[in-house]
Fold this protein.
Amino acid sequence: MNNFGVVELASAKTTHAPGWAYVPDTRPAPGSAALPSNRKRAARNHAGLSLSDASARQDAKIRKDLEVLDRDTHKDANIAIPPRTGGSRAQNKHTTNVRKILQSQKTFANHLDDYQALVALAETNPAAAAALNPANAQPKPAPPPTARNSPAPQPTPSTTTSKRSAAAAKRAAAAAAKEEKERKEREAREAEEAAEAAAAAEAERKSTAAPDDNNNNSSDNNCPPTAPPDVEMADASSLLPQAYPADGTILAAYAKPPPAPHAGDADPLLVSHVPAFPTDDELHALMTAPPLSYLEARARWGDDEQRYPARAFCEVCGHWGKVRCVKCGARACALDCLEAHREECVTRYGL
Amino acid sequence: MAGGRKSKPAGPAPPSRTLVLDNGASTIKAGFVTDTATDAPRVVPNCIARDRHRKTFVGSELEKCKDFGEIAFRRPVEKGFIVNWEAQKEIWDREFFDDKAPQRCDPSETRLVLAEQSNSLPALQLHCDQMVFEEFGFASYCRGNGPAFNAYNDVQAIFQTPRTPDTTIDIPAEVMLLIDSGYSHTTVTPIVQGRPLHPAIRRLDVGGKLMTNYLTRLLSVRHFDMRNDPYIVNEMKETACYISLDFKGDLEKTWKGTRGQRSQDYLTGAGIAKDYVLPDSHTRFHGVIRDYEPGVSAKARKGAVSTEDILTLRNERFVVPELLFNPSDIGIRQPGLGDLVMQSLSVLPVGLWPGLLANIVVVGGNSLFENFIQRLQTEILERVPDSCIVRVARPEDPVTSTWLGAASFAKHQHVEKLAVTKQEYEENGAGWIVRKFSAGLGVES
């Protein structure tokens, strides 16, 4: 084409047009995870994921409805800023940054798209991204994995173990600590008694050994043999209830006097099991972790997390949607509402 | 970065007056804090409104507006973040900087403590910092995580924990789980020693706006077209809606029954149905809620002597706030509030759970729905291990709670660690500030 003689000159001028942005097309669009994403053939694409057995038409309807619900105003009212009556702060000098910000008509969606584009660019070409926007080049081009179905950035042994095994481990650890304490006591006593008569020491040892054996037995009873302790024994001393949480500097230990002892305290059935407290390092890591991005913080269902089917409601009166319109799949509660719906359905889709 | 600056002799002393702003999408909470006194916060609508006579109201001028019929709003804050600075600047100017402003202050002698929502976009944070320093010229500035500011309140007082007179009040609170349910969204934030645990912050995109819009839709289908009256619908939502403790039962009670045989509960109202008298813009400018009287609305509909427009609200009353707990009811693919809490906890060590679950504080306007606390407690109890103690509480005024926390923060020594002076901004640039604020308080050890 000769372009009608128009020669296009390369210009250095860039325009920041509001309302659109270049966005890399990443297939499962993360931005619309909460909304049914694909207008076309949604039913086919979301075969396993679809909340309901809604047809593509209904999916599209839900999507459209949600978009409307998310809007601020029903009509796009363009309210201009009224002129100031007592305009005292009449300074018209803005810095370039401020002028740019004030003139920007971008919406949040535009900013979000920009951000996604920047993140995608930073993944593929970090240098270009940094050059493009030095201030925005956050030191997190590779966002941390979505925490939804992955453990914490710094996974802890206690997060991965089940509650029961953690409790068992705790019990085992406490028992081990008790045992160790008693062994130390015994050793000390032994050293003392070694100076005395050997025969007396021998007898003494037997008498201390007997309750010790008992203790061992009872601790074995406490700890079910099927649940192996999966907290290292080295931690045992730090799990003593006296030093709880384990001498942490971030969260100080409980300093007040303990509650009055009760006869049932030693009863294994009444013992309350407190999970292992996170160490200072874990807390430190959690407290200094960088913020997630806007999209990562959005809660969403995991693949198998939604245990209950979505509830369906009558579109006319709001009661349970027990029956379905054969034409469009909309739900209604009973014949009354279904007929009311039909009138609308006929006008929309024909007979 | 921060350490390098600290070693130098500090510049001028920090300003003695602090403007604390919780710049919400629906209302601004604003007030001044000095070393000695904390003003009560003023709640200003954060919008530019235009009524049907095309008269425009900015911010607190909305008080002068009488007739809220067909009013339209322009809001500078979208999804909790300040997006449109043109409108926001106008509102701030009129509230804080003009000569006749109700809360006048001189930015060059004031520190600004601004509460922002979690997980903001870097570009928006950058804009905010640039506006604060380059346009308004605050002497010192601190932008902090809004939910985390709540930890600087006296949290145990909210729970009415029994305490002896010599108990020290922990400020910030050691461990708490904050649920902030506002106009734009609902977030769950675990907080340890005033620091939000960022990996565990979760957001549900259901807020007051969505619920108002949903109520508008239900009314438009069943009664009149209310789409041009967001203010009236919002008022209706606030006065009439409640959270059901027995959703199935309540829904059953509001069913009209089969054809020919209306159910008895439907005819009597069963304590759920209410008549809502709409404002008529002549004598009444606010809606009034009344007990349901069978036949009244039917008579009114027939155009008898009555001059009142009456809406009978039935299941609309509890179906709308139910969205917080079951967003999938309208097809939002997100978990409800109970599961949201569990998802947030699931990324944290189990050792923190008992502390977090026993200290759940709910703030934000949606927590004013009747039964919110009880329902949330039930939902969480269903999901956590039996031996966990779950305490859920709401501060006296959940709307200004974040502001009060931020005001307490402004007096706390932590503010000195985080605040940035104008001079530092000019030396280090905006990118440095964005990084500094996103690093937060850090942990000293």
About this structure: Residues 29-33, 45-54, 134-169, 197-245 of chain A have pLDDT under 50 and may be disordered. The CA atoms of residues 181 and 237 of chain A lie 10 Å apart.
